[in-house]
Design brief:
The protein has four helices and four strands, in the order E-H-H-H-E-E-H-E. Helix 2 (about 50-60) runs antiparallel to helix 4 (about 105-125). The chain has a four-stranded antiparallel sheet with strand order 2-3-1-4, with helices on one face. A hairpin with a 3-residue loop joins strand 2 (about 75-85) and strand 3. The protein has helices spanning about 35-40, 50-60, 65, 105-125, and strands at about 20-30, 75-85, 90-100, 140-150.
C-alpha cells in the first residue's frame, strides 16, 4: 500500500458563494410479505419502524460530519423523510436543503441509509430464517436522485 504525500484535508470552500442547495436520496429495503403486513398492522414488537426511521434519518442528517470525517458542517434548513410501502419492500426518500457553500448530497445519503438500517433493526426478528440468517432481506438502490444549486 502506498502512502499519500499530502495529508487528508477538507476541501477549502472559503471563497465560494453561498447558494440554496437541495439533494434527495432514495433507497429500498426488501422485506418478507409477513413483515410488511406486520408494519402495516402496527404489530412490530419494537414499535413503529417508519416513525422511528424518520427520526433516525433526521438525526443522521444532522450528524453527517461526525460520521463522515471530511464532510463540512452545514447549516441544514430542511429535512424531509418519506416512505412508500410496497408488497415486498419499503422505499425511503430523504430530501435535505441548506443555504451554504457546499452541497447536501452526503447528508441525504446518510439520512436515507440510516432510515433503512433502522427499519432493518426494528424488524430483524421477523426477517430471520431458522438459522438466524437474513436470506431475503437487503438494502438496495441507495443513490442521489436529485441535486440542485440555486442562487440566493
Amino acid at each position: 500500500m502506498s502512502r499519500r504525500e499530502e495529508p487528508l484535508k477538507m476541501i477549502d470552500i472559503s471563497k465560494k458563494e453561498a447558494s440554496h442547495r437541495v439533494a434527495e436520496a432514495f433507497g429500498r429495503i426488501k422485506l418478507k410479505g409477513d413483515t410488511i403486513r406486520a408494519i402495516k398492522k402496527g404489530a412490530v414488537d419494537k414499535g413503529d419502524p417508519l416513525a422511528t426511521a424518520q427520526i433516525a434519518a433526521i438525526l443522521g442528517v444532522k450528524k453527517t460530519p461526525e460520521i463522515i470525517p471530511l464532510c463540512h458542517q452545514i447549516p441544514i434548513t430542511s429535512i424531509k423523510v418519506d416512505f412508500d410501502i410496497r408488497d415486498d419492500s419499503i422505499e425511503a426518500g430523504c430530501r435535505v436543503e441548506a443555504d451554504y457553500k457546499t452541497g447536501v448530497e452526503m447528508e441525504a445519503l446518510v439520512g436515507v441509509s440510516i432510515a433503512l438500517l433502522t427499519i432493518w433493526d426494528m424488524v430483524k426478528y421477523l426477517e430471520k430464517d431458522e438459522k438466524g440468517q437474513y436470506p431475503t432481506t437487503s438494502i438496495t438502490e441507495v443513490r442521489v436522485v436529485e441535486k440542485r444549486k440555486e442562487s440566493i
